[in-house]
Amino acid sequence: MSFFRKMKEKITGSNDAVTDKFKEGLAKTRNQFTSKVNDLVARFREIDEEFFEELEELLLQADVGVETVMELIDQLKLEVQRKNKKDTAGIQSVISEKLVEIYNAGEELDVRLNIQEDELTVILMVGVNGVGKTTTIGKLAARLLAEGKTVMLAAGDTFRAGAIDQLVVWGERAGVEVIRQSEGSDPAAVMYDAIRAAKNRKIDVLICDTAGRLQNKVNLMNELQKIHRVISKEVEGAPHEVLLALDATTGQNALVQAQTFKEATNVTGIVLTKLDGTAKGGIVLAIRNKLNIPVKFVGLGEGVDDLQPFDTEKYVYGLFADGLELEEEILDK
Ligand SMILES: Nc1nc2c(ncn2[C@@H]2O[C@H](COP(=O)(O)OP(=O)(O)OP(=O)(O)O)[C@@H](O)[C@H]2O)c(=O)[nH]1
C-alpha cells in the first residue's frame, strides 16, 4: 500500500471534518503546486536529472525554502535509487512521505498548548499589526470555550486605534469578558488588571493581546519584557505560551518577522494565519527548517472553527489530495 493511502487511512475516519478543512484550506497551494507536479509527472514519465530540476523549481515557488527543497530532492534521489525506480508514476506518494519525514525529523516539536490543570494559564499573543492577531485570539477563545475552559481576554494593544474595540467585539461574539483600559495606557498595567480579574473569577485561560510595533526592535523588546515581568510576578511560570501570529500570505517576510520576535521574546509557538489565502503554503516547511518553533495552529479560513491545530500529515494530505486520489484510482485499475 502506498504511503499516501496509509496516511489517508490514518487521518480520516474519526476526524474527517478536520481533514477536509486542511484539504479546503490548502486548495490554492494545491491548485498551483500539485497540479504542476502532476503535469510534470505526466510530461516526463521517466525520472532523470531534468525532472528533479523542474521539481526543485516548483517546490521553491511554493515557498518551501531552499534547504528543505535540497534535502527533499537528495532524499528523493536516494529513494529512487534504492527502489531502482525508473518512471515517475507514484512519485507524489514518495514526495509526500519524504515531506512528512523531513518535517518530523530533528527535535520533536510539541504542537499542544501548554494549559495548566489547576491554575490560571496565561497566553500572550504577539505579532505585527494586520496579521490577524485579534481574529486569532477570538477563534482561540472560542476553541477553548468549546473544550470547557473559562476564558478572559486582555486588551493589551493600547497603541493601535481601534484595537481595543475590535477585541471587545470578538469578546462579545465569543461571550467572554475583555479587560481593557483607555487607548494609550500602559499595556503592562492592563495585564496586571486582567490577571487580578482572572484570578478573582477563577478563570482557566487568560489570552493577552499586545501591540505589534516592529519599527523599533528595542522598544518592542522593552515592552514585551515589561509585560513578561508583570505577568510572571503575578503567576508563577507565566506566560505559559507566547504565540506569534504570522500571515502566511506574506511569505518570506513572515520569516523575517519571526526572527525579530524570536530575538525580542521567548516565542513558544506560531499561529500561521491565512494559509488558505496563499498558493505558497510550503512556507510551513520553511518555518520548521528556519526557526525550529512549532507551528501550533494554522488559519484555514475566516470562520471561527477554521483555526486548527497543526498536523503534519493532514497538512501534507492537503497539499496532495486530488492528484494522489486520482493516481490511486489509476493504480487500482
Ligand atoms: N481567509 C482567512 N482570513 C483570515 C484568517 N485569519 C484572519 N483572517 C481575516 O483577516 C482579517 C483581519 O485580519 P487583520 O486585519 O490582519 O486582523 P486583525 O486581527 O485586525 O489584525 P491585528 O492587527 O493583527 O490584530 C479578517 O477579515 C479575518 O477574517 C485566516 O486564517 N484565513
From TrEMBL:
Keywords per UniProt: Cell membrane, Cytoplasm, GTP-binding, Hydrolase, Membrane, Nucleotide-binding, Receptor
Domain SRP54-type proteins GTP-binding span(s) in chain numbering: 294-307
InterPro entries named among the record's database cross-references: AAA+_ATPase (IPR003593), P-loop_NTPase (IPR027417), Signal_recog_particl_SRP54_hlx (IPR013822), SR_rcpt_FtsY (IPR004390), SRP/SRP_N (IPR036225), SRP54_GTPase_dom (IPR000897), SRP54_N_sf (IPR042101)
Residues annotated for GTP binding in this entry: 127-134, 209-213, 273-276
Catalytic activity: GTP + H2O = GDP + phosphate + H(+)
The enzyme's E.C. designation: 3.6.5.4
Membrane disposition: Peripheral membrane protein
Enzyme class: hydrolase
Subcellular location(s) of the protein: Cell membrane; Cytoplasm
NCBIfam families the UniProt entry points to: ftsY (TIGR00064)
Protein role: Involved in targeting and insertion of nascent membrane proteins into the cytoplasmic membrane. Acts as a receptor for the complex formed by the signal recognition particle (SRP) and the ribosome-nascent chain (RNC).
HAMAP family named in the record: FtsY
Family: Belongs to the GTP-binding SRP family. FtsY subfamily.
Assembly behavior: Part of the signal recognition particle protein translocation system, which is composed of SRP and FtsY.
Name the record gives this protein: Signal recognition particle receptor FtsY
Species for this entry: Sporosarcina siberiensis
Encoding gene per record: ftsY
